């Protein structure tokens, strides 16, 4: 951790700054207080009131399409195991044996927090306790030596899981909370439902770690004001005039903006066989954030999503992926699929590098105790909406 003037700020002071920041209408509002990126007390508060209680996107349904397919993902320091069981139902469990809590499914070599595969059952490496795909304990060697021991009493700890538009969400909350499809009903019906994201086919899943606070990435993604200046090699080529961007309505659970590109063909435009979209929607980009941390750029011919979490005040970890609609997927020659994916990944890597420089600069800049007042551009309304969400959650008023 890089200590600075804000590192040891009391939580009460950080919350007071947040409250003052969000008490003004958008036209008079100032950017999120710098202290919120660096105060250790506020990071702990975010863990308790946001990441341990809200729906967190862990990936896409089609990444685990068949019975026995599984995916692990870390949520607020908890390793989560998501598995499709024999009845094709998705279930989520804490990725820890019910005996002495050894990690049941280890992470992969590149990213110790995640792994992906297929299994008929899950066996703990420590004492060979074995669980079915439904999380029930089916074998515990020599435990008959313990009087009264019942397999049915020692299944994996299950978590709430929900899906929306092809995305999978998990929450660590013990109480039942409103599912994403209800929270996001207006966004679905009025904007993104016409794309049918559930039919998009996932072609990429990657993890990145940047030296910035997680909110810096949220702030960067939720505004397109920077695109013409910062994304000359990628997104700026879609030629969407800033004057034509539309910011969406205020909502407690999401924020979005949209803009149509000029061209009816090429990257960013609908495939000729796309019968879901009509009119300007055939060339419309929608950027949206499902609060707190699920970011999506939705296009007629692909979507790019990011799910970001803190690794401390000075570091964030993000899982990102790309999915494409079936009509685009069908046009990719089987023999050239790997090359196509490689080229698309290269394009996204460039975009990520363009953003990384900005996001890390935001974090470095906000360390200073001497800063101007700051202000918002009209296209940064989604960032103000996110800050208001943050304030509600931190006050205990979701």
Features of the shown structure:
single chain, 398 residues, alpha+beta, Rieske Iron-sulfur Protein, Naphthalene 1,2-dioxygenase Alpha Subunit, Chain A, domain 1, 2 domains, seven-stranded antiparallel beta sheet, 9 helices, 24% helix
Strand and helix map with partners:
Elements: H1 11-22, H2 40-51, E1 56-60, E2 69-75, E3 78-84, E4 90-94, E5 115-118, E6 122-123, E7 130-131, E8 137-139, E9 158-164, E10 167-171, H3 180-183, H4 185-190, E11 201-210, H5 214-221, H6 227-230, E12 246-247, E13 254-260, E14 284-290, E15 294-298, E16 303-310, E17 316-324, H7 326-330, H8 337-365, H9 381-394
Antiparallel strand pairs: 1-10, 2-3, 2-5, 3-4, 4-9, 6-7, 7-8, 9-10, 11-17, 12-13, 13-14, 14-15, 15-16, 16-17
What does this entry look like structurally?
By secondary structure, this protein is an alpha+beta fold. Helix 1 (11-22) packs across helix 9 and helix 5 (214-221) crosses helix 8. A hairpin with a 2-residue loop joins strand 2 (69-75) and strand 3 (78-84). The protein has 9 helices and 17 strands. The chain folds into 2 domains: 56-171, Rieske Iron-sulfur Protein; 181-394, Naphthalene 1,2-dioxygenase Alpha Subunit, Chain A, domain 1 (Alpha-Beta Complex). A 7-stranded antiparallel sheet has the order 1-10-9-4-3-2-5, with no helix packed on it. A 7-stranded antiparallel sheet has the order 11-17-16-15-14-13-12. Strands 6-7-8 form a 3-stranded antiparallel sheet, with no helix packed on it. Helix content is 24%, strand content 24%.
């Amino acid at each position: 951790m890089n200590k600075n003037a804000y590192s040891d700020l009391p939580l009460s002071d950080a919350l007071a700054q947040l409250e003052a920041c969000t008490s003004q209408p958008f036209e008079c509002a100032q950017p999120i207080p710098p202290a919120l990126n660096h105060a250790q007390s506020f990071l702990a508060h975010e863990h308790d009131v946001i990441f341990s209680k809200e729906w967190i996107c862990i990936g896409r349904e089609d990444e685990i399409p068949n019975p026995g397919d599984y995916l692990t993902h870390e949520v607020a320091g908890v390793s989560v195991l998501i598995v499709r069981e024999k009845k094709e139902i998705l279930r989520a469990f804490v990725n820890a044996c019910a005996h002495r809590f050894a990690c049941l499914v280890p992470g992969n070599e590149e990213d110790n927090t995640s792994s992906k595969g297929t299994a008929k059952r899950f066996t703990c490496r420590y004492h060979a306790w074995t669980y079915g795909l439904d999380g029930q304990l089916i074998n515990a060697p020599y435990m008959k030596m313990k009087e009264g021991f019942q397999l049915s009493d020692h299944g994996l700890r299950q978590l709430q899981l929900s899906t929306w538009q092809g995305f999978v969400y998990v929450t660590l909350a013990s109480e039942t909370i409103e599912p994403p499809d209800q929270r996001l009903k207006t966004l679905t019906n009025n904007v993104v439902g016409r794309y049918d994201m559930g039919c998009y086919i996932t072609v990429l899943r990657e993890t990145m770690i940047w030296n910035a606070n997680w909110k810096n990435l949220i702030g960067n993604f939720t505004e397109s004001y920077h695109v013409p200046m910062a994304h000359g090699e990628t997104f700026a080529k879609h030629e969407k005039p800033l004057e034509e961007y539309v910011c969406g309505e205020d909502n407690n659970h999401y924020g979005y903006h949209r803009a149509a590109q000029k061209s009816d063909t090429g990257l960013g435009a609908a495939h000729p066989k796309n019968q879901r979209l009509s009119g300007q929607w055939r060339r419309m980009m929608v950027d949206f954030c499902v609060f707190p941390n699920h970011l999506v750029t939705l296009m007629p011919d692909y979507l790019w999503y990011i799910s970001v979490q803190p690794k401390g005040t000075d570091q964030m970890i993000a899982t990102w992926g790309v999915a494409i609609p079936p009509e685009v997927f069908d046009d990719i020659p089987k023999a050239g699929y790997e090359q196509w994916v490689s080229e698309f990944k290269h394009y996204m890597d460039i975009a990520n590098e363009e953003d990384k420089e900005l996001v890390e600069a935001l974090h470095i800049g906000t360390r200073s105790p001497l800063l101007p007042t700051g202000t918002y551009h009209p296209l940064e309304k989604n960032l103000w909406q996110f800050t208001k969400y943050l304030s509600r959650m931190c006050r205990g008023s979701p």
